[in-house]
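Records of this kind hold a single protein each, on a pair of labelled lines. Below, a sample record shows both lines together.
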Amino acid sequence: MTRDAFGRLPAALRATLIAAVFIGFGCDGAANGQQPPTRPTVTAPTNPNLPPPAPAGQSIPGPIKADPPGVDFGIVAPNSVVSTTVKILNPLDHPITIKMAKPSCTCTTVDMVGKVVPANGYIEMPMSMKLTSAIGKKSAQVNMVFEGINQVLSVRIDAETAYAVRANPNYIDALAAERMKGSFELISSDGTPFTVKSVDGRPAQSADGLPMKPAARQVVRYDFTGGVGLQGKGVPPFLIVVTDHAQCPLLDLRVRHETTKISPAINFGAFRENVGVIGSKGTAEFEFEVKHIGEGRLDRAEPQHKELTAEILSQRSDGDSIFVKVRVKDGGMPAGPFLLPCRFWSGTTSADLWLYGSVR
C-alpha cells in the first residue's frame, strides 16, 4: 500500500493496521529448535475501492530513515549484552516527534518516545539486546511511529550466540535410521587448537579413525546405535561434548529424534543449561529465563539425581519474563560429564529443565 492510499483510510482502520504490524514482529525463537509461537491475526475491515493493506510484519515506508537500518553483531558469547547507536534521520523541513518506539521483545531496550528529530537533521538512538545462554541466532526489532506521518520505521538487531568452540550445524539430525551414526564438525571460533575428550560420556573418535591432534577444526564421530551414554541406552536429547579448549570445556548439540521431543509446561527460554565444571563436593551458579510468566514465580528446584541439590537464589522480572538464578551443589556425583533433568515447580505446574556439566 502506498503512503497516499494509507493516508486516505479512516483513522480507526489506520490504527488497526499499525497494531497488526506490531503484532507481526517478534524475537527469533529458533534457539530451542522449535518454531516460534503462532501470532494472533488481526483482520481489518476491507474496502473494495482501496488497495489491499500491507501484510502484517512489514514496515510502512515513509520519509524517516535509520542509519544503519539494522546491525548484525555476528557471533557473540552467551549471556552477552550487545549495544549500538543508530541515527534516526529526518529529511523534512519541520521537526518530527516520535510517538511510539516499541521493541519486539523485552530483550531489547530503547528510550525514544516523545523525542524530537530536528528538521533536516537526526538524533541518535542507543539500542541494546540481552542475549541468553541459548545457543543460536537471535533477532529483535524496534518499531517506531511518528506524529503526523503514516509510517512505521523498523530497526533490527541480529546476533548469534556461540561458545568458543561451536558445532556446525549446532544439532544432530537422527530422525532417519541411517543418521543414527555419523559425524559432526567443531570449529574453534578464536582459532585456538583443541582436541575433543569425550562425546556423550564416551572417548571421542575422529571421523577418519586416526588419533586426534590439536587443531582449530575437528570432525568427530557420534553413534546412537549401541553402548551406554550419559542417559543410558537410546538417543539423548542433547549430545554433550567435552573439549580441552580453555574457554569451552563443554558444549552441547541438540539431537533431533522422534524420542527426544521437548514440550515443557513451563516456558523456559532454553531447554537446557550449561552448569559448567563443578569441583568435587563443590557448587556452581547459573541463570536462565522463563518467558511470558508475568507475575508468576518458580517455587523450588529438584535435580533428578540423588547426589545433586539445587537452590533458587533469586528471581528478577522485566514485567513479562523472569530471570532465575540457581546454585547447584555436588553431593558425590561420579567424576566426569553429566546430563540430567532438573524439575522446577511453579504452583502445581512442573517441568524439567535439562542440566549438563562436568564434575572434576
Residues 15-57 have pLDDT under 50 and may be disordered. The helical segments are 3-7, 11-24. The domain at 163-261 is CATH 2.60.40 (Immunoglobulin-like).
